[in-house]
């Protein structure tokens, strides 16, 4: 039995994630940028030159927090769980939708997937379509679940890319840059102003969420 290239990735993504949800996911990432940047101004010990350099660390936490909130409020169609790696030294948020498992990561380039990690490697194994040569007739074993990554750019005041794709361990089998997809505004929740993103409820929620997790987005 040997691994081969998986099914049409773009077709899989578009069959599982609607244009409206793609648009909403971009909006959540954009709001995460705002929340992280403004949080450094509202958290006393971060509101100075060196403190504001921690915005890059806060951004993945803010984006994970907002994704979690949107899922819990039913605006994104994922169930979620906080998982740990094998030695319990790292926590990550896993989003589930029928045959899809998804994680979020901040990366430097649209060409790369998230950096290698054991838990991601194990998830990536579910993407492999296998050809069975031991039968009289060669057959394909199609995986029942698929692992996707949503990656977004580091730095700047807004994301340069928001990729949703299937990683292959060194890069991508294929991906879609959601920023280049049509934006669909269904409600005011998809078009929040800065003042609405940084309400005290979000700042308090972000602080509590940050206390629960470490290392999100690496």
Q: Indicate the proportion of strand residues.
A: 15-25%
From the spread of the alpha carbons, the general shape counts as globular
Give a quick account of the main beta sheet: strands, pairing sense, barrel closure: 6 strands, mixed
Separation of termini? 33 Å
- Low-pLDDT segments, ≥5 res: 44-48, 129-141
Give the overall average pLDDT. 76
Strand order of the largest sheet: 2-3-4-7-8-9
- How many helices? The count is 7
Number of domains: 1
**Topology pattern, helix = H, strand = E:** EHHHHEEEHEEEEEHH
Structural class by helix and strand composition = alpha+beta
The helix content is 25-40%
Radius of gyration, CA atoms, in whole angstroms:
18 Å
How would you sum up this structure, described in words?
- The chain is 36% helix and 23% strand.
- The chain has 218 residues and is an alpha+beta fold.
- The chain has one domain.
- The strands form 2 sheets. A 6-stranded mixed sheet has the order 2-3-4-7-8-9, with helices on both faces. It has a 3-stranded antiparallel sheet with strand order 1-5-6, with no helix packed on it.
- A hairpin with a 6-residue loop joins strand 5 and strand 6.
- The protein is globular.
- The protein starts with a strand and ends in a 6-residue tail after the last helix.
């Amino acid at each position: 039995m040997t691994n081969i290239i998986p099914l049409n990735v773009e077709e899989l993504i578009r069959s599982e994630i609607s244009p409206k949800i793609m648009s909403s996911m971009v909006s959540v990432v954009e709001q995460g940028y705002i929340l992280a940047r403004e949080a450094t101004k509202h958290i006393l010990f971060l509101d100075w030159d060196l403190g504001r350099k921690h915005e890059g660390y806060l951004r993945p936490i803010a984006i994970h927090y907002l994704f979690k909130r949107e899922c819990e409020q039913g605006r994104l169609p994922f169930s979620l769980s906080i998982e740990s790696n094998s030695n319990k030294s790292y926590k990550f948020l896993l989003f589930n939708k029928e045959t899809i498992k998804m994680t979020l990561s901040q990366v430097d380039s649209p060409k790369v997937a998230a950096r290698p990690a054991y838990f991601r490697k194990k998830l990536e194994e579910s993407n492999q379509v296998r050809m069975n040569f031991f039968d009289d007739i060669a057959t394909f074993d199609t995986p029942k679940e698929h692992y996707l990554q949503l990656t977004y750019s580091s730095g700047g005041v807004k994301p340069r890319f928001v990729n949703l794709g299937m990683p292959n361990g060194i890069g991508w089998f294929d991906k879609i840059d959601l920023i280049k997809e049509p934006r669909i505004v269904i409600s005011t929740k998809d078009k929040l102003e800065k003042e609405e993103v940084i309400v005290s409820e979000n700042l308090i929620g972000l602080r509590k969420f940050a206390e629960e997790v470490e290392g999100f987005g690496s």
